[in-house]
Design goal:
With 297 residues, the protein is of the alpha+beta class. It has 2 domains: 23-99, Beta Barrel (OB fold (Dihydrolipoamide Acetyltransferase, E2P)), CATH 2.40.50.320; 124-293, Glutaredoxin (3-Layer(aba) Sandwich), CATH 3.40.30.10. The chain is built from 6 helices and 14 strands. It has helices spanning 65-70, 158-173, 176-180, 196-206, 224-233, 270-280; strands at residues 23-36, 41-46, 56-62, 76-84, 90-99, 124-127, 132-134, 142-148, 182-188, 217-221, 238-241, 244-247, 251-254, 260-264. The strands form 3 sheets. The chain has a 7-stranded mixed sheet. The protein has a 5-stranded mixed beta barrel with strand order 1-2-3-5-4. The chain has a two-stranded antiparallel ribbon with strand order 11-12. Strand 1 (23-36) and strand 2 (41-46) form a beta hairpin. The longest helix has 16 residues, at 158-173. It starts with 22 loop residues before the first strand and ends in a 17-residue tail after the last helix.
Amino acid sequence: MNLQRFIPVVCLGILLSGCQSKTKHFDLKGQVLDKKPATNEITVNHEDIPGFMSAMTMSYSVKDKTGFQQVEPGDVIAADVITAKNGNEYWLENIRITDASGRKTIKPATVHRLDIGERVPDLSLVNQDGKSFRLDDFKGKAVLITFIYTRCPMPTFCPRLSGQFAKIQNDLAKTPVDFAKTHLVTISFDPKYDTPPVLRKYGLAYLDNDPAGFSHWDFASAKEGDLRKIADAFGLEYFEEDNQIAHSMVIVLMSPEGTVAKYWSTEWTTVELEDALRQQEKPGIVPAKADGQRKAG
């Protein structure tokens, strides 16, 4: 395994609720590069997994509590990859450490994300219409933020995430009060390719070609320096490898006060996200920028 070509996570985390009565099992062998106790995830540089995935480095949710507690970065492991019937949910079980001699050779990831309650950085973003805005513009609203890139080649990963945000958009629109007090922001970490026109075309595909939807859902990017700052603030890892971008999965809920209210990584449902948005709504707070005042181009 080439540890110099570390791909932290490849568009992982589109975990949806559903029937788990039928599962498939695959054998995984690889080396642990990172361990995230907060989300029960480990990042593994693994060999080919026949029938499931080619050799790469990515994060997996771990449901083997004992194995998760014992494993450390640097360990060579064998484990079972379990996939649900729909193919979008997968996790590790039955972790076995086969070689622990490399524990001192792997340094854990150093990116530190904001804690719950800390203020979200007020950095400049540019949306699909080429207009600059800041997350602080949505003070008074509950804002759901996530990260994608439009060239993602895996239909069940980034496109699936955008599809679920589209469902949230449509569900919130059914209740005008909820719609007025919430907002969605999808940020691309591929600013060289994902220019405003590209983001606009991408966004329209999830808005039923209705540009009015941009008043409630921004597709944005930023200058590389600001993009890296906001990614680090939310614990997002990403970098380009072989003309594709490897990245971790992060969904952030920003409170009406502009602070981090909650994070999601690999385990979430649209119902959970919608409920969290509605619970953040504060009666009596007037949004800083009402949707009706943001004209879609």
